[in-house]
From TrEMBL:
It is found in: Cytoplasm; Nucleus. Belongs to the cytidine and deoxycytidylate deaminase family. Homodimer. This is Cytosine deaminase. Pathway: Pyrimidine metabolism; UMP biosynthesis via salvage pathway; uracil from cytosine: step 1/1.
Length: 162
């Protein structure tokens, strides 16, 4: 699947989340043959669930899969993956992570690369504008989602692991 098409699926989920009053982060897991295995969006607000981020929600919706299904797959996500979602991608051996933007938040990209995952940042203005709008409107909800009291850009020590 073309990476921009995959990201569009993730962005559609993020927009749906925004319309629901939630945190607008979406994801899509696409198999190596182009099949869409799952879609998901952050459900912190909608479900009161702190572990359903875009990517983990997507993995949940994809259901139980044999490990071979993740081989060669791509996780499309509108925002740079946090530590939890970075770990989930590594756990299931997802081969590629395609990211909409990493300007509003920078997650575990360097660690993913270090572990052999292909990481592509598409620098999507649509993804960034949606997150900026949300963070401006609901800064407290956003801070809650990333586990801080005040906004941070990254907790990653890039020098230590790159
Ligand atoms: Zn996450």
């Amino acid at each position: 699947m073309d990476d921009h098409k995959g990201l569009a699926l993730a962005l559609g989920e993020a927009q749906r989340g925004y319309e629901e009053g939630g945190i607008p982060i979406g994801a899509a897991l696409v198999a190596t043959d182009g099949r869409v295995l799952g879609l998901g969006r952050n459900m912190r607000v909608q479900d009161g669930n702190p572990i359903l981020h875009g990517e983990t929600s997507c993995l949940q919706n994809a259901g139980r899969l044999p490990s071979s299904a993740y081989q060669g797959s791509t996780m499309y996500t509108t925002l740079s993956p946090c530590d939890m979602c970075t770990g989930a991608c590594l756990l299931y051996g997802i081969s590629r992570v395609v990211i909409g933007e990493n300007k509003t938040f920078l997650g575990g990209e360097a660690y993913l690369k270090k572990r052999g995952v292909e990481v592509i940042v598409l620098d999507s203005p649509e993804c960034r504008e949606l997150m900026e709008r949300f963070i401006t409107e609901k800064p407290k909800v956003w801070n809650e989602d990333i586990g801080v009291e005040e906004r941070v850009y990254t907790k990653e020590n890039l020098e230590g692991i790159s």
